[in-house]
Amino acid sequence: QVQLQESGPGLVKPSQTLSLTCTVSGGSITTNYYYWSWIRQPPGKGLEWMGAIAYSGSTYYSPSLKSRTSISRDTSKNQFTLQLSSVTPEDTAVYYCARGGQPDSEYDYWGQGTQVTVSS
To answer: What is the C-alpha separation between 44 and 75, in angstroms, rounded?
Structure first.
């Protein structure tokens, strides 16, 4: 059973960089052919895919967020990390990490989600 757990600060100030880590257990993030995604849900809105890192280490980003987003991984810790720069209150959301069969779909395992609020 694969488990994912998000961690990071729940409050970030405007213009700062949001950084979240997803710790994976029960499976390796280098296992063929899975993709490890970050997805968010702003209050009252639907899910938004932000980006993913593949089993190979290749990265994929939403065009609308690409200029502000970076996803990396630490294979020794079986973790992958999201960094979102220059945040605004519009980046307030519940942030999820998930495993998928495609960079932006076919999710089979999700983390429980973590609330991030952008406010001064």
So the answer is: 35
Q: Which two tokens stand for residue 115?
A: 């609330």
Q: Name the nearest CA neighbour of 53 among 80, 85, 83, 25.
A: 80
- Rounded CA-CA distance 120/117 in Å is 10
DSSP letter, residue 46: -
* Total residues belonging to the chain: 120
pLDDT at 82: 98
Say how many CA atoms lie within 13 Å of 34 toward its Cβ: 16
A 10 A CB-CB count for 47 gives 14
Tell whether omega for the bond before 109 is within 30 degrees of 0, i.e. cis: no
Return the pLDDT at 113: 98
At position 66, the amino acid (one-letter code) is K
pLDDT < 70 regions, the chain: none
* Residue 3: predicted pLDDT: 98
List pLDDT tens digits, range 71-82.
999 999 999 999
